[in-house]
Amino acid sequence: MIKVNSKDFEWEEGLTVQVLLDKKKYTFPKIFVTINGKHIDKEDFDTTLINDGDDVKVVHLLAGG
Amino acid sequence: MDVNNLKQSHKLLVEYKYEPAKLERGYTNKTLYINVGENRIESKDVPDSMKEKFIGGKGYGLKYLWDATSPETKWNDPENEIVIAGGPLCGITQYPGAGKSLVVTISPMTNIPIDSNVGGYFGPYLKFSGWDALEIQGKSQKDVIIYIDGNNGVIKVEEAPLEAIDGHVISEQLTEMYADSEEDKKNISVISAGTAADHANIGLLNFSFYDMRRKVARLKQAGRGGIGRVFRDKKIKAIVIKFKGTKGDLNKPANQSLINKAGIKLHKQIHDYDDVQCRMRQIGTANIIEVMDEYDLLPTHNYQYGGHPDTHKISSNVFVEKYITQGMPDGCWYGCSLSCAKAADHFELKTGPYKGHKVTIDGPEYENAAGLGSNCGIFDPEMILEGNFYCDTYGVDTISFGTICAFAMECYERGIIDKEVTGGLDLRFGNAEAQMELLHQMSRGEGFGALIGLGVRQLKEIFVKEHGADADFLNDIGMEQKGLEVSEYLPKESLAQQGGYGLTNKGPQHDEAWLIFMDMVNNQIPTFEDKAEALHYFPMFRTWFGLMGLCKLPWNDTTPPDNHLTDEPAKMPEHVQHYVNIYNGVTGMNIDKNQLILQSERVYNFQRIFNIRRGKGLRQHDAMPYRSMGPVTIEEYESRQERYDNQLRELLDYDPEGKTTEEKIKVMREYRVSQYEQLTDAVYKRRGWTPNGVPTAEHLRKIGMDLPELIDVIEKHI
Amino acid sequence: MKILVKKDDLCIGCGVCEEVCSTAYFKENNIEKSCIQVEKGEAKKINVCNQCGACIDICPVMVINRSTNGVVRISKKECVGCFMCVGFCPESAMRQHDDYIEPFKCIACGLCAKECPTGAIAVEDIEIETKEKL
Known about the structure:
By secondary structure, chain A is mainly beta. Chain A has one helix at residues 17-23; strands at 2-4, 7-9, 31-35, 38-40, 55-60. The longest helix of chain C is centred in the first third of the chain and has 11 residues, at 16-26.
């Protein structure tokens, strides 16, 4: 189990940031991601593995319509 | 176009000559008063006390409206005013989004003040012509045009019998009439409404700017709350302003360098990143159509659902690829490099009085596509463009129209109304032809379309009284509050956004706060106190744009590359500092980001008390229809059953197993309504209000807004 | 079309071009008022307009135009001072100085080239196709 934005999410072997975004359908272009407080660059979403127990934040930057 | 004929039919009613006041540090300190009933034109001096407390823009509008009206004044009484004002930053050209006008009046929809923020060149030209605000009062007997010549200091009110009423026609006619040459057309801005505004309470105002490349007068809208209806009720066809000689320093700023630095930095940022961020320069606000669908936030079938399998047919790329040209300087004021305006060129209309005409259509904005489109189950991009065009030229608020139409369609599908009521229109979701027919009827003041123009609140009463509808059900599904229709976001899964819509001054418009991602997706504001803080900060911060004459899009539709490393990314700290800098640069003051909020807080509380003075503005008026908070019907619940069942388990420790959907809806509803009440308590407390939503005298003292006329009003409620 | 061509490897960063330019146009020896500017440091980088014309399409009042000899010029009288052209210049070669409310740029006049001691800059008349290849 991992945390995504402070909520439980099922972990699986080989879970990358990009796979997580796809699973959550997080398609908004202006997001940033941290794993245990560390920023992950957009270019590394495909290759960065998430470990079981990680605290992931996917912050959508839109505070206005 | 031959406009001589039109011009020769004008009859001068009153002329006023003046020496245009010099602009100094963003202000002229003079405002213009025109009474079209008495043909009286006056200049007013702005006292320092007014400037200090009300700042400009909608602050000035609300102040003048308060002074001009009594608590009993109705929207169509002669003393109701339309006040148009920029603000101290309006008219600077270096920082994107600095040409906005704020328009204020007593709304025919809500019977309280409405404020609307609109682009186009009018606001800057009004200031350059010597006026910090324009107040219009009285009611004319015959159709008139007001003309302001800002270079020569001449104002005229003239009877104008022959000009068109529809926005796109009259804007072209008057641009042609008052410009000396093609070159000169950029120096003209026209305010107009449209034929539907003669009948429909959802009437809007069009503000023009001349597009030198497309060679056409483009229109931006002061859309919400029926200001166009008031304009036409005063028998005003148009207000025309002419000012030649725009330069980058006409505001006579105290420190031009501060403004230049902030502006150029933002221009560079937009140049470097917009293509991979919001694509405002490619498609403008429509970039979020498909985003909202993917996050289950795109209102569909009268806000029953948050997405639809056909959304791809109206996704932003469809408009980009097939209909829209953009990317040239499409800003609605000089210097707006975010350039969200866009146009469908040579679009051939299929219906109505302009059928066969090839027109330039501004839009679609996101709200148009969602309101005219998905919310009514319409996924035809050409019909959305057609609806967008007719709404603009007839002077109809697309947001209200979309939401009303969606409501009527749901009532029709549920058998609450039938063809006898709709005059034979088959008002199913998805019937774009029927929707267009409603619009054409509205422009003629006929048939069911004329009723649509009254708004959801009045339609509910009519359906209950005349067609035996269940009042409770209609109150649940009719997406209005305070008489204003909800704008086009589905807030069911975001409690904070329910507050963002409900706990507002003018009604459920998202310009005070849009917290859905922060709340629902990011989970950044989990507690009531967190949400209350956001519902204090963001409405106050965003009110400030309306005091200044600024657009809010350059605040958060472009992002500095290192924004995510800042303390509070959602606030866009670098942009907030830009705003502090350009304000200080123009006015020579030395405020910080906290004083910026204080400026807003004063006007925000003033507006709240204005509502209370008019018998509204209390807790009961901040309640929201349940459709905005949760599933009203079995279909809604069952369409997202897994989500709702899980929530019952996790949040309420309630086992949904073996329960009927009706039972689950009831339990869910009790929970969600109580959440909203608790949120209301927390927000009022944070804002310094009583549990009934009344600002306390102590709070007014604290923010320096304990004016005797305000204390008088609140004392009756404390 | 006329264009100021540059050879960074010949530049010695002596500052003559900047002095000539700012003095000619603003009567002042001030690098910040020069249309041509050299990034000082180990590797000299000459920054100057290449007359690509991206700014022509950016200008909201259409006062940036290409003259008959191909040079991109600003008509300052009608300029509204928004500085969008400064932010959007692909070469970062559109200039702005707080003493003026209009931007300014190289018009390939060649005054600087005449004084350049190493031949690092020169005005050439090139075909538009050649220019596109550059």
